[in-house]
Design goal:
Layout lengths: L5 H6 L2 H11 L3 H9 L6 H13 L3 H9 L4 H11 L9 H14 L12 H12 L3 H24 L12
Length: about 170
């Protein structure tokens, strides 16, 4: 995901800004709402707007987003490859639990993988499998809202100026 300043984002053409936001959250309506609310004066203003836009979508739009989530298998293999992790873990039980999850709820298992060690994902997924569908829809929506925030913070994190050693 690219990084940029809020000022740069505020000056992007609408189509480009919308595409950037769609990369954060695969809801066209969410991306349009966040983009249409520019200009943003600070990160908190953007995060607040993104939060309100997410919770303003409703269950049908959330389910479209959750249905577009790549499989846990793909995300875990990508994370493992990105970390250069050659640890051999038996991922089949996690993938079986994800399959049960998709069968029960009708959408992909959404969780921020950055905080869940691979060894704990199976219990995490099984725990959420016990949820009632309405509870799980809300839990998944909360998790996606958190992912949106983390991704926005990663894009718009304030950058510190680096001192040029040649001027010292």
């Amino acid at each position: 995901m690219p990084t940029m300043t809020l000022s740069a984002f505020n000056h992007l053409p609408a189509l480009e800004a919308g595409g950037l936001m769609h990369g954060v959250c695969p809801s066209r309506r969410w991306a349009e709402r966040v983009t249409a609310s520019r200009p943003y004066h600070n990160l908190n203003e953007l995060l607040y707007t993104a939060h309100r836009a997410w919770w303003g979508l409703g269950a049908d739009e959330w389910k479209l987003v959750f249905g577009s989530v790549s499989s846990l298998r793909d995300r875990l293999l990508q994370r493992q490859a990105g970390a250069g992790d050659s640890t051999e873990l038996d991922l089949d039980p996690i993938f079986a639990a994800e399959h049960q999850y998709r069968q029960k709820f009708g959408f992909g298992f959404v969780t921020y993988l950055g905080e869940v060690p691979t060894t704990e994902l199976l219990s995490h997924c099984r725990q959420r499998l016990a949820n009632d569908p309405d509870v799980e829809l809300r839990t998944t929506a909360e998790e996606q809202a958190r992912i949106n925030r983390i991704q926005l913070e990663a894009i718009f994190v304030p950058r510190r100026r680096m001192e040029d050693p040649s001027t010292s």
